[in-house]
Design goal:
Outer membrane lipoprotein wza fold like, five-stranded mixed β-sheet
Length: 755
């Protein structure tokens, strides 16, 4: 009953939400909606309406494998009755129904009355009319006969100026109380529209449960069974038999299932199916929708419980109408075999590989022609035919592809034969030529006969800037069996147009040769640096010599602007050195080895974060005071010298109450800036405060005895207040152990002092 109350509360909330949004529109369209039928007001509606989500109940159910169960769990469908359809003539009017009586013609008027608890309506000038228990057609006739007493024009002929017409409409249907019990998801008493049927009621309660029957749903009225509804008959055939209209105090009982069988394999709908006592395997085939296209239907496999054990029965498809199903049966439908009756296949170095039809008398040459022949890179020395004998024995037949093409030796084929034509490369070791050094695209190229040195250099994009065409070396492996010499080298001379010099023979390459093009002696590619920020001439500058330093670069930029903040100068350097990259790879390996949760592992993980550049703090004043000193760094390709503008703030981060920017004031201490940010937080680690300066330098707090020496502050600095490490709380066992040890120690001390 708790679940029922929850569903009731949820429904009421939905009604309130929808009411607030539609109140105004309903007021505007009051006259239009008077004739539209609506449910009775003020009644509690239990169960599903089709609008709410059923995920909460779906999660409690097992995976829907029972046929028919998912039908009642789909939130996108609704089986609430259509209130806008014409009222059936056999609809039984009762208390709670609202009737609209209209009169038009020679006179006009309308009367809206709700049938009271005694089953009457009251019309002005007519009085009380008893309508409860009558069909809708009988009610219309009775009201019309009463209206004739005050409107004589009703009996006038059609077309007469005194003719009066009447009409009766049900604008609001009553609700009926229906009891749903037995094996359903949410049993209980439900308030439903009087137009509801058995199917509407089942949807309202969530449908049959896992142990409930979908085939034996009975409706009792006044203690007598009036209908039996079969959900399968509705789902398969669309039959409405037993899906009767409900009346007040009807009782719907869902019985437990009797027989269920499991269907798996090559069928359209796998799962559990409920079977009646007299139904056969043919009925079951109808339920699961038939077989898939690859199903083997000649023989069906049925597992059945007999004498507390399972037995297997093979059933011919022609006998399915005679085989009655039992509870616990398992039907398995196997797939057809993958074997072919008339198939040939060909693959490898042919233009049209694939599967072809086998015909008696076909030969290997015929199949090769149907595949449009062999490719240019096909090996003509050997091909293979794969053949199956007696479905179990496999054998191969080798043949000469060349003889087959020339029809010198043709081979008759059998059903399911497969031909494979090899590529040349697959039957010999890999042959390549490698080009490296001063070329635009160093690469490995496939070897081709009569390749020249100049040819492979051209295929590698030609000579790069700084290449020395007069110094080209070719390295070649030696396999003379001497165990002494492993390779030899050939020097080749050419020019920028890759033309061999006069009087020299061009070298023909062999497989696995390596061509190395040297750079001009002393050649160094153009290197550049950038200067950004508050200088007179910012931009890109070339490195003129390997001894160029920051001071040399500062002379070329024309000096600083009046807004330059020299103390915040920073040199940004890209990480391009091969040794540095190897260091990072080694650090990554250390992190993988230290995979535990130790402090060492945490430190390594923090340090292993890859960066593509460095930020180096520099001192411009010291550099300009003494050039080429240790402070005056050598320039590298890609360096960026950043001269920021004057800073006027100090940033406070970390464990403070209000991290923020604070205006820089000369002479202020670090504690004063932290106070401006609200002071220390509860978890602040006061002994380890760091200061990050504008140029990238980092200074830490120095502790000596009882004194803390905080770093000096400069404009643009960032104060970082770290957090204290989390303390691991002692477990209950550890706490008891410590208390026991202290107690024992106290007892020992007491005994010693007592003695």
């Amino acid at each position: 009953m708790q679940e029922t109350q929850v569903m009731k509360l949820r429904q009421r909330i939905m009604q309130l939400d929808s009411y607030s949004g539609t109140q105004k529109s309903n007021a505007k369209n009051k006259n239009t909606n008077d004739k539209m039928r609506r449910p009775a007001e003020g009644d509690d509606i239990f169960g599903y309406t089709g609008r709410e989500k059923k995920d909460s109940l779906n999660r409690k159910q097992k995976k829907d494998s029972i046929f028919g169960m998912s039908f009642f769990k789909n939130p996108k469908i609704s089986f609430t009755p259509n209130l806008n359809m014409p009222t059936p003539e056999n609809y039984q009017v009762g208390p709670g129904d609202e009737l609209l009586v209209e009169v038009w013609g020679a006179t006009e008027g309308s009367f809206k009355q709700k049938v009271d608890a005694e089953g009457n309506i009251f019309l002005n000038g007519v009085g009380r009319i008893h309508v409860s228990g009558l069909s809708f057609s009988e009610v219309k006739a009775k009201i019309n006969s009463y209206l004739k007493r005050i409107y004589s024009g009703i009996s006038a002929p059609d077309g007469s100026y005194a003719k009066i017409y009447t009409g009766v409409t049900i604008t609001q249907v009553r609700t009926v109380k229906v009891n749903i019990i037995g094996e359903v998801v949410v049993p209980g008493t439900y308030s439903l529209s009087s137009l509801s049927t058995v199917l509407n009621a089942l949807y309202a309660c969530g449908g049959p449960s896992e142990s409930g029957s979908f085939r034996d749903i009975n409706v009792f009225r006044g203690g007598k069974k009036v209908a039996t509804f079969d959900v399968y008959n509705f789902l398969i055939n669309g039959s409405e038999k037993g899906n009767i209209g409900l009346q007040d105090q009807d009782v719907i009982i869902v019985s437990p299932y009797k027989n269920r069988v499991w269907v798996e394999g090559k069928v359209k709908r796998k799962g559990l199916y409920e079977m009646l006592d007299n139904e056969t395997l043919a009925n079951l085939v109808t339920f699961f929708g038939g077989f898939t296209s690859d199903a083997f239907t000649n023989t069906l496999v049925l597992e059945r419980i007999k004498d507390a054990k399972r037995e297997v029965q093979e059933i011919a498809f022609s006998e399915i109408g005679k085989m009655k199903m039992q509870n616990g049966d398992r039907l398995k439908v196997h797939s057809i075999t993958n074997e072919y009756r008339n198939r040939l296949s060909i693959g490898g170095a042919v233009y049209q590989p694939g599967t072809y039809e086998f015909k008696e008398g076909m030969t290997a040459h015929d199949l090769l022609e149907r595949a449009n022949g062999v490719k240019k890179d096909a090996s003509l020395n050997r091909g293979l035919i794969f053949r199956t004998e007696n479905r179990v024995d496999y054998q191969t037949l080798s043949f000469s592809v060349k003889d087959l093409i020339e029809k010198k030796n043709d081979i008759p084929l059998k059903d399911n034969d497969s031909i494979h034509i090899f590529y040349k490369d697959s039957l010999q070791y890999k042959r390549f030529v490698k080009v490296e050094g001063a070329v635009n695209s160093p690469k490995e190229l496939p070897f081709m006969e009569n390749m020249k040195v100049e040819d492979v250099i051209a295929l590698a994009g030609g000579l790069s800037n700084g290449a020395d065409p007069s110094t080209i070396e070719v390295f070649r492996e030696i396999n003379d069996g001497s165990f002494q010499r492993l390779s030899t080298a050939f020097k080749v001379s050419s020019n920028n147009e890759l033309l061999p010099e006069e009087g020299t023979n061009t070298l023909t390459l062999q497989p696995n040769d390596i061509v190395s093009v040297r750079y001009i002696k002393g050649f160094t590619p153009l290197q550049t640096v950038s200067v950004m920020g508050e200088v007179v001439y910012p931009g890109v500058y070339s490195i003129q010599s390997k001894n160029d330093r920051i001071s040399d670069l500062l002379e070329r930029v024309g000096g600083f602007t009046p807004f330059a903040y020299k103390e915040g100068a920073t040199l940004i350097r890209k990480k391009t050195d091969e040794g540095e990259i190897q260091q990072e790879d080694f650090l990554k390996e250390l992190v993988e080895l230290e995979s535990n949760s130790s402090e060492t592992a945490k430190s390594l993980k923090k340090a292993s974060k890859k960066t593509s550049e460095y930020r180096i703090g520099i001192d411009i004043n010291k550099i300009l005071k003494k050039k080429h000193s240790k402070h005056d760094l050598l320039l590298s390709d890609g360096d960026v010298l950043l001269i920021p503008s004057e800073k006027q703030t100090i940033e406070v981060r970390g464990e403070v109450l209000a991290p923020s920017l604070v205006r820089y004031q000369k002479g202020f201490s670090l504690r004063e800036y932290i106070d401006r940010a609200g002071g220390f937080g509860n978890q602040a680690k006061k002994r380890a405060i760091y200061v990050l300066y504008a140029n990238g330098d980092v200074r830490a707090t120095h502790n000596s005895l009882f004194f803390r020496n905080y770093p000096k502050l400069e404009p643009g600095a960032i104060i970082i207040v770290p957090s204290k490490p989390e303390r691991q709380r002692l477990s209950t066992g550890e706490s008891i152990g410590i208390i026991s040890a202290i107690t024992t120690m106290g007892v020992l001390i007491y005994n010693v002092l007592k003695n």
